[in-house]
């Protein structure tokens, strides 16, 4: 059957992957309310299209941290991609590069920064988890820098792993033929079987729960790479991030895998954008599955979006070609959305092109 949208990869990947692996990729925390809400919230935002605009030429290219990319659609860091496909992160890197966009490599990748760099040219960011052992962190950041990575994405929402119940039931563990390649030769490249989630135990023993804004300053002192903070969900943390001097913010709830009952990212975006006041770019991830979602995020002020699970599912189904197809389908849908909404470049997308639930309530109140 022909695949006609990026969500269709999920069901095919489910048939193909061992249950433990599919569940690890798919699941959210606890009741998975936020997991559904990340999608549902997009469906409550509607369009206000403009008509009779010359849309014969559409430009969707943009610039992120000074790097020109083909579209405002990028790849979020997702761990352990070789569980999906033997080519893992290297296939994703090639697909991103040939699509002219940015890939973010996870700290917990099953391919190292050097292996990913050796796939050829491409703009790549490195996602950082801060370990208790700061020497390990320093070495890792230096290696990423030497391998030509362009920015650090600091994940700030994971002092402990969210409770993902299928991982507990499945006793999730990294298959024994794989390692966390960025830590090769170190004990922390492996995960051990426990009587719940092996990853949750790994995080409890290795990740630094004391991490705070002063450590972002420390990180700035050991690298010249710009730092994006991932996991900002409100105005208060936006202001602290800007005060700390970060280069950008990613509105993210970790694909609904950390704190359940946190709102959808698209519902928090405008608050963050307003607080940022254009001082730093604001990006978003979480539940983006359609070109219309990309447009909605940009209309609410995002400078670009990242996708997580669709990359894993398409990688599982068709390796590099699958990821390329996901990026192409999302790009084509986004371009079509712009055409039908009457926008010719990213700059022409405005807040007036959409209507949110809050707008509708405000409008009906004002009519009373
Ligand atoms: C299987 C899986 C693994 C992930 N691994 C990481 C990770 O290593 N580091 C990180 O910062 N975020 C990680 N994330 C979160 C993603 O970067 C991103 O925030 C999320 O997947 C976006 O939502 P989406 O999957 O709905 O597109 C992971 C998400 C998934 C689904």
UniProtKB/TrEMBL annotation:
Residues 1-359 form the FMN hydroxy acid dehydrogenase domain. InterPro entries: Aldolase_TIM, Alpha-hydoxy_acid_DH_FMN, FMN-dep_DH, FMN_HAD, FMN_hydac_DH_AS. This is (S)-2-hydroxy-acid oxidase. It comes from Zostera marina (Eelgrass). It is an enzyme of class 1 (oxidoreductase). CDD domains: alpha_hydroxyacid_oxid_FMN. FMN binds at residues 77-79, 106, 127, 155, 230, 252, 285-289, 308-309. One of its GO terms (molecular function) is (S)-2-hydroxy-acid oxidase activity. Pathway: Photosynthesis; photorespiration; glycine from 2-phosphoglycolate: step 2/3.
